[in-house]
Design a protein that fits this description.
This protein is mainly alpha-helical and about 200 residues long. The protein folds into 2 domains: about 45 residues, no CATH class; about 120 residues, no CATH class. The longest helix is centred in the middle third of the chain and has 31 residues. The mean pLDDT is about 80.
Length: about 200
Amino acid sequence: MQDEATAVGVSRPSIPASVDRSEIDRGRETLAFDRSRETLASGEHPRYDQHPRFGQRPHVRLLDGMRRPANWLQLVRFGIVGGSGFMVNLAVYALCVHAFGVDYRASSVVAWLIAVLNNFLLNRHWTFDATAGSVRFQAIRFFVVSLVAEAFSLVLLTVLVESAGVAKVPAQALAVAASMPLNFLGNKLWSFRASG
């Protein structure tokens, strides 16, 4: 099978047998890395899978992601949606605990379910603009991420109420706020991950 250069009649120089092919491969990798740096310096952002070193170094991906204004805008939108979900959560929680006398842990679960529905709809359509993906798969993933964050929040709530003596509604506020970073990362990187 011919490569493009041979197909159009351009001859390639042969590589002498004394040259180590691994040196050539390392040179190509260095050239690709230098081009990636030039691309970053020019303001363009290469996809992570276009360079093997980006895929191997999570901190490089994180730093590159932090340079993108779109990610910061998503974080702000996520915070706004989270704030609305937070208010829904606290309102339902306070209503269940104080008006209906439901146990504070059960109230937390009820409030969480209603807030999750609110947050899924807003995050899908506004924060991550993920309307092209399968709603079923996104909903399942969103629910799993939210369930993990709620488990973390519920453990923290119990510790704050039982061990630290914090009042129930402020403890719920602290527990929900503490789970926000876990929620954002899980939803950005998994639930509403951009395809390709």
